[in-house]
Amino acid sequence: MKILVYPHDLGVGGSQLNAIELGAAVKQLGHEVFLFGQPGPLVDKSRELGLEYIPAPIPRRRPSPSVISALVRAVRQHGINVLHGYEWPPALECLAASKLVGASTAVATVMSMSVAPFIPKSMPLTVGTEQIQSLETSLGRRHVYLLEPPVDVFSNSRLADIGVDEFRTHWELNDDVLNVVCVSRLAHELKLEGIVSALEAVDNLSRDRRVRLIIAGGGPAMDRVASRANAINEATGRRTVVLTGELRDPRPAYAVADVVLGMGGSALRGLSFAKPLIVQGERGFWRLLTPESLPTFLWQGWYGWGTCSSDGQDALTSILAPLLEDADARSRLGRFGRQVVEDRFSLADTARRQLAFYDRFVTSRPSFRRSLTAEAAALARFSAHQVQRRYHSYFGNSPRDDFNAKPVAASPDAASLRPNGRRA
Questions:
Q1: Per-residue b/e over 139-176, b at no fewer than 16 CB within 10 Å?
Q2: Residue 20: pLDDT above 90?
Q3: Residue 371, class by beta-carbon neighbours within 10 Å (0-12 exposed, 13-18 middle, 19+ buried)?
Q4: CA–CA dist 298, 393 (Å, integer)
Q5: Sheet holding 241-245: strands in order across?
């Protein structure tokens, strides 16, 4: 089978890393896998993993006619069987290309916190949480499957040779200060609220504890984060907050952590390093992963929705303070988290489920009539979405990331959903 994997961009981020690592794992199962996308930092990572890279044109709008044309050329040149788009713009572009080249099948993956309603309901789809899968099923989507964010449990391990000593030396971490680590894109939507809470919580805790916050990542909110970090460091008289910027390989940051803060794939990679995890969400949500809280995260994903944004600092402080004092608890919870990742989220197992997903829809596609009806309905929803975007843009209040700004976990329907347990 020949598969083209198309992430929404090739900057450093969880969904993109998942796409590339899964593609490489499927390649190891004996298939040809190509990476398609606009040039970015992860191109080198894909080449290291043995994926052939096909550059895409820079789109002026999404879906992009120039990108669709490039996909069509790639399908014809390489004999692609499956076009796999991650998030909604690549999904729609892959779908359009597959319609122009009848021998290919388009599938989609959404790792955002909700699914764009204009991805046609006939399009085979994987999502990252049971809760989102359940909602999409209730809305009439027939082909939606659970494929949780995978982790390479071998390369993301304290036993892997990843240059930890060099990282400690470079960032001046060779001391007895406890490291609270957050590896995250510094985005305004979804991420920034929790990062600000972490800054304030560690600032307070550092007054009578030897604790440091390490934030590894870059993004549009960097200036705001850096401004507050500099103020904290000036007030405390030491490097209470360390900003590394975007790291091509963030694994050493997880490895030096005593406690990890995170959501989504970042949370899972922290667990793979056997670190205690405090899950970050929005509106003041923070929760420690324990055997008791695990079912919640297996259902709604590594994220949560609290009651009030202003509660975040106190909520995080109340979890961090006792955890920093109890080395035995940190060790015990770290071992528990590592076992969770090995049992449920390993990359090798996920790749086999991904391949089964491809096999199903290469050999059995939705009927022409059902596809046409679903695609016409999706086009109408997309048109309405574009009108709404232009309206909000005119008044200056358009969200930066539509479907991370509307998480299923925060929707009025979330409480009524129930697990259905399906897997690809």
A1: eebebbbbbbbbbbbebbbeebebebeebbeebebeee
A2: yes
A3: middle
A4: 36
A5: 241-245, 211-216, 178-183, 259-262, 277-280, 286-288
CA Rg value for the chain: 21
d(Cα 359, Cα 43) in Å, to the nearest integer? 27
Residue 158 has pLDDT above 80, yes or no: yes
Residue with token string 């009848």: 102
Model confidence band, residue 422 (pLDDT cutoffs 50, 70, 90) = very low
Q: What single letter denotes the amino acid at residue 147?
A: L
CA distances from 61 to 58, 68, 205 (A): 9, 12, 46
Count other Cβ atoms within 10 Å, centred on residue 97. Answer: 26
- First-to-last alpha carbon distance for the chain, in angstroms, is 18
315-332 residue pLDDT tens: 999 999 999 999 999 999
**CA–CA separation, 313 vs 221, rounded Å?**
19
Q: In the structure, what pLDDT confidence band is assigned to residue 364 with cuts at 50, 70 and 90?
A: low
Q: Which of 346, 188, 158 is nearest to 260 (CA)?
A: 158
pLDDT value at residue 60:
85
What pLDDT is attached to residue 278?
98
Q: How confident is the model at residue 248 (pLDDT cuts 50, 70, 90)?
A: confident
Q: What distance in Å separates the CA atoms of residue 2 and residue 355, rounded to the nearest whole number? A: 11
Beta-bridged to residue 261, according to DSSP, are: 182, 278
